Amino acid sequence: MINACVIGLGSRGFHLTRNVLLNNDDVNILAVCDLYEDRVQKVQELIKEKKGNDAKGYSDYKEAINHEGLDAVYVFTGWEWHTEIAIYAMEKGIAVASEVGCEYSLDSLMKLVETQERTGTPYMFMENCCYNKDELLATAMARKGMFGTIVHCSGAYGHDLRSEVSHGLINRHYRFKNYENRNLENYPTHELGPIARLLNINRGNRFVSVSAFASKAAGLKEYIANCEDADEVMKNTVWKQGDIVTTVITCANGETILLRLDTTLPRSYSREFTVRGTKGLYTQENNSVYLDGEKEYWEPVDYNKATIDNAKNYEEEFLPDIWKNITEEQTQLGHGGMDWFVYKAFSDALQNGEPMPIDVYDAATWMAVSVLSEMSIAAGGAPQLMPDFTKGKWHLRKPEDVIKL
Amino acid sequence: MINACVIGLGSRGFHLTRNVLLNNDDVNILAVCDLYEDRVQKVQELIKEKKGNDAKGYSDYKEAINHEGLDAVYVFTGWEWHTEIAIYAMEKGIAVASEVGCEYSLDSLMKLVETQERTGTPYMFMENCCYNKDELLATAMARKGMFGTIVHCSGAYGHDLRSEVSHGLINRHYRFKNYENRNLENYPTHELGPIARLLNINRGNRFVSVSAFASKAAGLKEYIANCEDADEVMKNTVWKQGDIVTTVITCANGETILLRLDTTLPRSYSREFTVRGTKGLYTQENNSVYLDGEKEYWEPVDYNKATIDNAKNYEEEFLPDIWKNITEEQTQLGHGGMDWFVYKAFSDALQNGEPMPIDVYDAATWMAVSVLSEMSIAAGGAPQLMPDFTKGKWHLRKPEDVIKL
After folding, report:
1. Is B230 part of the contact surface with chain A (CB cutoff 8 Å)?
2. How far apart are CA B197 and CA A281, in angstroms?
3. B205-244, pLDDT tens digit by residue?
4. What domains sit in chain A, N to C, each tagged with a CATH number?
5. ipTM
6. Are A266 and B301 an interchain contact pair (Cβ–Cβ within 8 Å)?
């Protein structure tokens, strides 16, 4: 049994607690923490209703982490607090499950790694997309050589967040201040995590440079101008965050990675996870596979009609068992099931004393892309060198997937 | 009647002569030129059969351009010759229709512009995709405000050319030497031309910087290893051209442009022309439109099923007349009809003494992207500044489309 504290009880924290943690019989929530009292009360009531126990409420994360008898802390806060809280908890020997986000300085990430190495406290970066069906199917196919030598991967965070961002002060959402004050690839890890694992980053390969380019910021301003409930603060906010941020990463083994942050223009959700190799490709946009030797279609539309959703034909041979055996209930627990898998992976590894499947080097390297993108944009697109958080161990570490493929 | 010379009689030159020029009653071919005698003979026979006249054959382009009584020269050669031939012809007062391609130095492009300005000889860059249905439909929608403020455009040259490139010495194709010796975005204009016109480049806007990144080169080597008819030269060639080249262009008015060269890995053809604005998007990949306020679909596959090919619903209101009225015969003349339209635009403008719809500034600016991408890749992705070929006139020139929209 894992005695746990949950810190950060906004929308993501509330839903993860309700849907995932309270459905995991290995987790026992003793303490909850948020800066807002109403959020604390709401989750305390939820725990009482579902489990019968009275979780202690806190507004100070240090006090929460010092609650007696904790094994682990779940960090669901705004991006500004992830690393600081993780470092504090690791110093106390409390295992950390950290939600994803961006970072603000390379120094913080260096300290995150140094603290984990020195204390040995388990730390996992909870990148749910590393456990998603599409990404695992394509990764399994890649591991079995279906795409040949991989030379390029791409992905996006394509999600219309105009309502969430613009109402962030009203809804107490951390995105408002980030979009008001910064201009960067602020949320790279959903698409980058699965790509980095596929390319064996920190495990025989590494990111070398990051270059980023931001379009002008027009989406939020025009959205708010047409927003019936916009207040004066929203209307007068000058947004520094460009609507589309294009980021290119080069890798030591010669691959390139393309990312797109795409959150303030009208669009439907997509991560566009794409793998390109010498023998074939997978692209999530149409959930399609194209293998060398298949008929080449001249017209784009015909091409898509021919291959749209054809990746499902490869599931029987390549889809990992966790997705073959997923229950209907698990699919309902968040983002189609991946939330359940990633949080189960943490509690299983912690209980069994096994290495965390997404470790502090993954966390630091993936979040460093956000910091370096900010530097690159400020420098007119000049490439920024990625620090080696493994301090040379990437030569020695062996490729490993988040689950056996 | 336009008395014309055709230079460069390889595959593209042969097909354009046969399908387009010999079907245009305004064009009279008096001379043909190629370094290879068999190509010259083949086109002479074609002209004799179709039109009855004996076109004079040449192997030296200068002699061909000096053939008596010429009004225009069509340049269908390998990329290395486009600019040199165009400059020579303009000096002689012979109008130039130049096929598309890349360039090798900024100096050549400066000289191309200077020669056109000094001589006043008509010059047109024959970017057929500027006349294609998808691109014109989306551009017309953009001009009418359907997508709001445009902040980002992207496109690709996604075309599996492994067979053509690898057999280039056998088939006398210029791509072989370019792929052997260079590493760059070597063919940007098919996707970039329509984007540049949409963004009013050189007409109130301009490209500011070009950054480019090349993946490793693995596709051709592995392809040739499995090629039954590969000779020793092919097998031993070391290809410098990366498989995927990612290029980002920043614009004076704050837009960003993303290009991908993608010609040596298995894939189907696509240009992926995409327009992103504050009120909606068009993407050629699925020929789909998504407008602000439409239902947001969570799952990528559902999204595509919902919108795939839905751009056709906008044709009645927005499709230009040339595409509404296209004849079945015209669609058979090359690339679905766009070849016919772009070459008709040249002969019409020349006969009517009107400005060329795709001019020397377009040509220089778009081809300069290839040169600057080569410099950027060699400099590890460092941004390269785009020269202003208009020498400041871009402030003054008015937005204009290749046809009235």
Report:
1. no
2. 31
3. 999 999 999 999 999 999 999 999 999 999 999 999 999 9
4. 2-128 (3.40.50.720), 130-324+360-395 (3.30.360.10)
5. 0.96
6. no
